[in-house]
Amino acid sequence: MKYEHCIRCTICVENCPVLRVNPDFPGPKQSGPDAQRFRMEREKAVDEWVMLCSQCKRCEMACPCGVEPAQIILKAQQRYGLQHPRTLAYLLFANNYYLSALGSLTAPIANTIASTAIGKKIFRAMGIATYIPFPKFRFRTLHNKKKNLSRSTRKVAFFYGCFINFYRPDIGRKIIQLLTSFNIDVVLPPQWCCGLPALGNGNLALARSFAEKNAASLSNYIDAGYDVVYTCTSCGLCLLHDYPGILEIPQGKKIAENSYDLYEYIVKLIDEGHIDPQFREVRRKLAYHIPCHLRALGIGYPATKIMAMIPGLEYEILDDTCCGLNGSYGFKKTNESTAVQLGNRAVSLIRKTGAEAIVADCGSCRMQLAGLSGLTALDPAEIVSESLGITDQK
Amino acid sequence: MIKTDVIIIGGGATGCGIARDLALRGIPHCLVEKGDFAAGATGACHGLLHSGSRYVVSDPIAAKECYDENIILRKIGEKCVEQTGGLFVRLPGDSKLYRERFLRSCEEIGIPAEVISSTKALDLVPNLNPEIEEAIKVPDCSIDPFRLCMLNIATSQRRDGIIFIRHKVTEIVKSHGHCIGVKATDQVTGDIREIRGNVIVNATGAWSHLVASLAGNEVPLTLSKGSIVITNHRLTNMVINRLRPPSDGDIVVPNEAVCLAGTTSLMVEDPDKSRIESTEVDTIISEAGRMIPHFNNTRIIRAFSGVRPLLKSQKSDSREISRGFQIINHENGMYSIVGGKLTTFRLMAEKMVDTIMNYYGLKTPCATAEKPLDGQEELSGYPLSKRLADMKNIVCECELVTRQEVERIIKQTGTRYVGDIQHRTRLGMGPCQGGFCTFRALGIMHEKSIISPEQSMSALRDFLQRRFRGIRYCLWGDQLREEQLVEYIYLGILAMEKPQ
Amino acid sequence: MSVIEYDVIIIGAGVTGFTAGTRLAERGLKVAVVTTGEPTACLSTGCIDVCNGDHNPLHGVTHLPEEHPFHLISQAAIREALDNFANAMTDMGIPYIGTPEENRRILSALGTYKTTCMVPVTMQAAPQNADDDIHIITFSGLKDFYPSYIISRRKNASFSTYDAGVSTTMGIAANFEREDFLETFIPWLGKLNIREDKIAFPAVLGLESAAKIVKKIEDRLKRAVFEIPTIPPSMPGRRLFNALKDYFRKKGGTIYWAWPVAGVEKTGKIIEAVVTESEGRPNSLNARAFVLATGSFVGGGLHAQRDTIVEKVFNLPVHVPGLRETWFDNDYFSFNHGIGKAGIIVDSSFRPVGSAWENIFVCGGILANTEILKSGCGHGLALATGYAAAKSCAEYIR
C-alpha cells in the first residue's frame, strides 16, 4: 500500500513530461495515489485517461516518499486494458515482435511500403502516428548471425532486444565484436521480445508469455555461469523491474541480479582489471540524452564513465527531459501531439549545447531525436567501437 | 419577526429529519441551528447505518428498530447510502456464547445474518486479521452524515421551510408560562432574530438540557464522549465489527474514500469542551488493529470526538444505557426528543411529528419512509470508483471535488466558511486535510466577490486552527510529514502571519 | 554488488547537499550525491531566507536562541556561503539579488508580504509596501493562483486573464519556453494598455529561462515585471534545484538518483560505505567521508514514529523534544511547535554529538533546534551549514 505514503508534495507532478503538454492527463499524483483511494477491485474501471501515462518513470525517480506512482498507474492500465477493448494501434504494438519479424523477413518490400504516402495513410488510418519515419527493417537480423566462439572464463549471454535485432543489427554486431575483443565468450541465447511493448499496450498476458520464455532461456545460461548483458535500457528495465514485479516471473530475481547494462558491464570489467582498453581519440562534441528508463534502472550513467576515458570526446549530459517517444507510446496517434511537443523541447535543449550529434542508449530516443532534429543519433557503442577500432565485420 | 407553526431547535439528523417530515406533511416550520448542520453527535459518528445486529443481544427492541430503518433508508437513499454490508468477526478467544446468542437473536428479530468461513471473509476483506475464526455477514451500510442532513433539509427548502444556521437560540419567549417563540443570535452579525411558533421541538442532542432549561424545563441527560480516528484510505470495503459485547474500538466503517474507526466511551460534563486525547487514539488503533492488523502501521489523518446524549440512568457504563429514544412533553408548548442513533433518525422524526399532529388533531400520515430523499440527483452515487471517469477541473484532488461543485455551494449558500464547503462536498477531508484545496476554495470565494480580505484571512486562520485540533493527535509517520509540508505552504510560501 | 569509490558521498540532493557537494568538488575532491528522491527545495519559493527576526539578517542571526546551529558559523562564513551561491546562480542563468545585511520582501499569493534575504531576479520588482500599483496577469484554468486575493488587499490593483492553452503550472511554464508562444503573448499583453507601474505574474514564466523571459517582457512593455510564488508545484523552487544540480555536475560531481540507502559498512569509528538499493543489485558506495543532508521530516531525513524520532541512514541519535503529546501545541500558529527543535545536534565541526563516528558530517534541515519557520531561516541555513560542513569535511580528508 505504497500510495499511503504520498504527502501530496507534487514533486512527481513537477517531473511529469506528459502533464506539461497534454491537458487530458491528470498527472502522476492524481492518476496514482489520489485515484487509488477510489479504485475498487471488483468494480468497473472507468479511468480511461490512465492510458495516457507513458511509463517514463520520472515520477518514481523524483518521489521522496517511495510511493512509486508509475507502478500504481501501470496496474491501473492493465486493469483498464483487461476490461475495455483495445484499439488497433494498441494491438499492433503489443505484438510488435511478431510484426517486426514479419517486416524484417520482407524487409525491402516492407520498408518501401512504410515510406510511401499511401503507406503512411494506411498507418494513420490504423491509429499510428507518422510524424517521424518508421525505422527500416533489416533482413539480416541477429537471429541469422553465426555465433562467435572463443575460449574464455568470462561468458556473456547477450540480450539484444527488438530494436537492435530488427532495425540496427549492425550495432548488435559491433557490440558482439566489442565484447569478443575483450576475450569474452558471447552467446546469443534464444530470446524473444522482452515483453515491454505488450505491457505498455495493456496486454499483461502476452507480456508474461514472452517473459516466461525469456526467463527460462536466460536462466539456463545464468546457471551455467553466464552474465546477461543487455543494451537497450528499456529491455533492461523490463528484465530487472517488471519480471520480478508485475509479471511475477519466478526466476525474476535471479535474472535481475545477473543482468548488466553493457556499459555497466564494461566498467565492471575495467574495475576488476579484466581489461585495460586503450581508447583512441574520437574528436566529437556530443549531446548525451539520458533515456528515461536508464535513469529508472538505478545504475547511474555508466556510459559517461567510459566516454570520459576517450580522448578528445566532449559530451554534455541532458537528463531533464523525456524525448517523448517512449517506445510505441508516441507512435499512437492519440499521443502524437504529446510526443511531438516533448520531442521538440528535447531537441531545442540539444541544440543549445551546440553539439554536432546526439548519443543515447535507447533506440527509441535515437529515432525520435534524430527524426525531429535532423542530427545524427548514435548509440554509445558506436563511439566506443570507433575509439577501439572495432568495425562491423559482415 | 418570523411566524411559523413548528420551531425546531437543532440541525442534526433528528432536527433535519423532523424538518423533512413536517415539510412532506405540509406543516410550516423553521429550523434554527447554532453552528452548521450536523455540528453535534451526528457529525462526529461513524456514519454507520446499522443492520441492528450490534444491539441484538443487549437491546433487541433497539435492534429491530434499526433494522427496519436500515431497510427504509436503503430504499429512500439509493444514491447516498453505500450498501457495503458488514462483518462481525470472531477472533480467537472471543466468546462462543455471545456468538450463539447473537445468531439466535438475529433470527428471532429477522435480521439476515449469514455465517461465513474465515477464508471467505478474507476473500471479501483481504486486510482482515488472518487469524479470525469466522465471520457473520449482516446488511450494515454507511452514509456521510453531513450529506444525510443536507438531503433532508433539501426537502424542507423545496417546500418553503425556513432554515437558519449559525443562529444560537438564547431565549425562549413565553406567554403565560407557555412557549411561544425563540430569540436567536446570528453568530456572524450579532443580529437577533425572533421567531414565533405554536410548538417548539428541542432536538439539540447533547445540548438538550441547556436548551430545555431556557424554558425552565428539564431533560435528564448523561453525556458520553466518543472518539473516532480516520484512516488515509479504505482498509476495508465492508463494515467490520467485533463479535463480542460492545466495547472500545470495535467498529471500522468505510465511508467515502476513508475508514472511520472507533469508538470510546467516557462520561463528560460539558458538550462544548470535549477533546480527544492521545490515549484514546492509541486505544482505538490497537483495538481496530486486532481486526485489521494494518491499522498498527497505517496513516491516521484525523482524530476527533463527539458527545453522545444519552437518557440518564443509574448504570455506570454508558454503553449499557438504552440507545432507544424518548420524547418528553414538557407540557408548556415544548417537546424534547432525546437519545437514539443515527440509524433511527427518521423514525424519531416520525414519532415526534406524529405526536405534534395528534395534539393538533391533524391526520396527515408520515411520508418520509416512502418518498426518496430529495437532492440525490446531484450526487455521483456509488460505487466510489465511478468518480474516476472525469478528472477535469478538480479543486480538491484528494477527494475529487470539482470547481463546479464548489461554485454551486457558494452560490446556493453564499457562505464564507470553508467548513461549509467541506461538509457539503468533502473538500479537504482527504489525506492532506485541506492543505491545498483550502487555498483554492477561498480563492474561488474571492473571485465571486463575496468575501473581504479580513474575512478571508480570519476564515483561513479559523479553518486552520479548527483543522489542527482534528489532526494534532495523529501526527506521526507519514501524517507528520504531510503536516510539516502543509505548514511550509501556509506559513512559508503563503506567508500567513501569526494572529495578533 | 557493484562497488563504487569516491572521496566524499553526500546523502541528500537538496540545497544543503548540493552546496556541500559543490564546495568539495571545487577543491578537486571526487564527490557524489546520492538521493532517494527530489528535495523539499523543489517546492519552495526559491527565496533564500536567512533570518526574519531583524531587518538585518546577519545581525538577526546573532540573536537566535543559543542552541540554533547558525551560531556554529561565523558571520564571515555565512557571507561567503551566500556570495558563492549568488555567483553560482548567475553562472547558471538564474541570478539572485539581495545582501545579507538587509532583508527584503516579496508578495505572496495571498497578497501578504514574505520577508526574505535573497530572491531570484524575477522577484526583484516585488512591491515592498502598499504604494505600488500592480496589474496582475493570470491564466485561464490555473487553479493554484487567484489574483482576487491580492486585489482585495491592495488599493490599486487589477487583473487580466490569458488563455495559455494549458492550465497547469508546469504546462504554462513549459509554454513560456517556446519562442512562438512568447511572440503571441507579448503583443496580447501590449494591447491591454496597462496603466499600472508593475506587472505581476504567478511564477510560471518559464522553466529555466525565467530571468530572460522576464527581461524580455520588461523591455517590451517598459514596465517592471515580477513573479509571485505559487503553492506547489513551484517553478522558482524547481529552477533553484535544477541550477544547483547542474552547477554541481559542472564542477565535476556525480549524482545517483533514486538510490535509497539501505545499510552501511563500517570499521571501528569509520563508515566505509553506504549500501544503496537499485533495480538489479545493491550498490556499495565507498568514501572517505560522508555528509548527511537528508532534511527534516518533509525531506525524509527524520522519521517520527509513534513514540520517538529516528534517523535511518546512520541511526544517529536524534534530539527529541519530549513525548509525542508535547511535539505540537494547541495553537496552530505557534510556528514549528515543539517539534521544530527535533533533529541531530552537532559540534562545531558538524559532527553528530553523542555518536562515535569520525567521518560523518551533518548539515541542513536535519539539524536540531533550527525552528525554520520561527526563525525564518530555511535555505539560508542550508547554504551556510552545507558550506561549513563541507569545509570541515575537506579538512578531515586532508
Write a structural description.
- The complex is a heterotrimer of chains A (394), B (500) and C (398).
- Chain A is of the alpha/beta class and 394 residues long.
- Chain A is built from 21 helices and 8 strands.
- Chain A has a 4-stranded parallel β-sheet.
- In chain A, helix 7 (96-105) crosses helix 8 (107-115).
- The longest helix of chain A is centred in the middle third of the chain and has 20 residues, at 204-223.
- Chain A starts with 10 loop residues before the first helix and ends in a 6-residue tail after the last helix.
- Chain B has helices spanning 13-24, 60-76, 96-109, 118-124, 145-158, 208-213, 278-291, 345-359, 403-413, 418-425, 437-447, 453-471, 477-493, and strands at 2-3, 6-9, 29-32, 48-49, 86-90, 114-117, 134-138, 141-142, 162-164, 167-175, 178-186, 192-196, 199-202, 221-231, 239-242, 251-255, 258-262, 266-268, 300-311, 325-329, 334-339, 394-396, 401-402.
- Chain B contains 13 helices and 23 strands.
- In chain B, strands 5, 6, 7, 14, 15, 16, 17, 18 and 19 form a 9-stranded mixed β-sheet that branches. A 6-stranded mixed β-sheet of chain B has the order 9-3-2-13-21-20. In chain B, strands 1-12-11-10 form a 4-stranded mixed β-sheet, with no helix packed on it.
- Chain B has 500 residues and is of the alpha/beta class.
- In chain B, helix 1 (13-24) packs parallel to helix 5 and helix 9 crosses helix 10.
- With 398 residues, chain C is of the alpha/beta class.
- Chain C is built from 11 helices and 19 strands.
- Chain C has helices at residues 15-26, 57-62, 75-91, 147-151, 169-176, 179-191, 210-221, 235-250, 324-327, 372-375, 378-397; strands at residues 2-5, 8-11, 31-34, 96-97, 104-107, 113-116, 119-120, 134-139, 157-162, 198-202, 224-228, 254-256, 261-267, 270-276, 283-286, 289-292, 302-304, 309-311, 360-362.
- Chain C has a 5-stranded parallel β-sheet, covered by helices on one side.
- At the A-B interface, helix 3 of A face helix 13 of B.
